[in-house]
Design goal:
Elements: E1 5-10, H1 14-17, H2 30-46, E2 51-56, E3 81-84, H3 95-102, E4 106-112, H4 114-127, E5 131-140, H5 149-160, E6 170-173
Parallel strand pairs: 1-2, 1-4, 2-3, 4-5, 5-6
Helix pairs in contact: 4-5
Keywords: Hydrolase
Family: Belongs to the isochorismatase family.
Domain Isochorismatase-like: 5-150
Length: 188
């Protein structure tokens, strides 16, 4: 099976990663998150694997620092940035069309926040026909009233691993593996 891969970087905006005066809590393990995502972006670029960014319009107003993509993870001039309002990166956007135009069959997903936009993108991608690799140590969130961020991340890594919709499914893999090469066929 031919798998064309793309790296999807979700909501790594300054206001989410670093926090804002209104929401002062940065995401869990922000330094290692940024470093891991930057390494994956570098690997994708070196191998001419498309990198696409999703940016949430509800974080702050465009032009404000909190709205901007984290400076350590900035897109290259040719890399698309898809703007969204919903937690689902595909809803009301042309993300699916852009991926189809690139011939993508395998999505590697990283970013923020685990239980919202990352989870939604993983699940929706499988219903659209994409195999998904969620990078175990390249997504993050903040504490909520019920769970600490570390628990939320662990829970999602566990429940999303192997989740599928008919044929396409999600694998959760650590960044130490070559996550840009799909391993789904070895499980079919």
């Amino acid at each position: 099976m031919n798998h064309t891969t793309a790296l999807l970087v979700i909501d790594v905006q300054v206001g989410i990663v670093e926090g804002t005066p209104d929401h002062p809590n940065p995401v869990y393990a922000k330094e290692s998150l940024v470093q891991t995502i930057q390494t994956l972006i570098d690997h994708a670029r070196t191998r001419s694997i498309p990198v696409l960014y999703v940016q949430d319009l509800d974080v702050k107003d465009a032009g404000e620092e909190a709205f901007a993509i984290h400076p350590a993870l900035s897109p290259a001039p040719h890399e698309p940035v898809i703007y969204k309002r919903a937690t689902d990166s595909f809803h009301g956007t042309d993300l699916h069309e852009q991926l189809q135009a690139l011939g993508v069959k395998h999505l590697v997903i990283v970013g923020c926040k685990t239980e919202y936009c990352v989870d939604s993108a993983c699940r929706k991608a499988t219903t659209l026909g994409y195999d998904v690799t969620l990078v175990r140590d390249a997504h993050s969130t903040t504490d909520n009233a019920a769970l600490h961020a570390e628990q939320i991340i662990a829970h999602h890594n566990t429940c999303l691993h192997g989740l599928g919709n008919l044929d396409p499914f999600i694998l959760v893999r650590p960044s130490e593996e070559d996550v840009l090469v799909p391993s789904h066929d070895s499980y079919r």
